[in-house]
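Bumping with the actual sequence this time:
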Amino acid sequence: MEVRVESDAGTRLDAWLASRFDDLSRSRIQELIRGQHIRRNEQPAKPRDAVAIGDTIQVEIPEAIPAEAAPQDIPLDILHEDDSLLVLDKAPGMVVHPAAGNPDGTLVNALLHHCRGRLSGIGGVERPGIVHRLDKDTSGCMVVAKTDAAHHSLVEQFAGRTTSKRYLAVVQGRPAEKQGTVFTHIGRHPVHRMKMAVVNPPGGKASITDYQVLVHDPGNDSSLVGCDLHTGRTHQIRVHMHHLGCPLIGDPIYAKPARQKAQPGRLMLHAHRLGFDHPDDGRRLDFEAPIPPEFTPWLQLLDHPLP
């Protein structure tokens, strides 16, 4: 694929690419550069190269080698499947791809078994088919690419913000405003490296969340909140709700679950709806993952249908 630099001149090439392709981590980009799969103006690139307005960046994704993750017969809740992609309802507690501490039992292991290895190779051997991700303890809608063409199309839609992503979250307390938009930069926490944080620009990446308080439970001082994501940063909703002074119920990183009055036994974040254009024919697809039973106490307080 080829992209043209139209803004952010002077930014390191690896950082510039990472800001535009959520499916390619900075380390993966550096790996591609070392393998001479990324060129700037038709010349071999270096990670520290500074981009300039008008530059053309060529990115070649090499053919996938056999995945190191082993196929495992793990049940999946499939919402839709065709020759190019599948949409699933990820269970809470399931890790998306193998990593240190989680070598197997992941969504990738399950997908390799279910799809008999027929997955896009763009994510590399550790993340075949993975276009975007959900945190381990987040449940709900995910789309997975079976072909490289589908992967490219879906990545462009996520990067171009033409997808729709609606989450349900239960937070401690209640935001000061019933609805609003949180627009910050999110980056790695300067001290606690397992956490993300709101940082001052130009640090981090621009992150936008629209939110609406759907109902408040005064009994345990918690609120059901609908969140629409316009970007897809790591821990985005968790960081933005914490930024508003309302950390998610059950969040072990940004809150202290043992001190929260509501005790549902999980992180209360669910990817409820996902919409995108089908890569093959452009028709709009909208999916909805059933709301988990842990959310029922708050749903029962609603006096209107979910928006």
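The tokens above came from a reply further down the thread. The chain has a mean pLDDT of 92.
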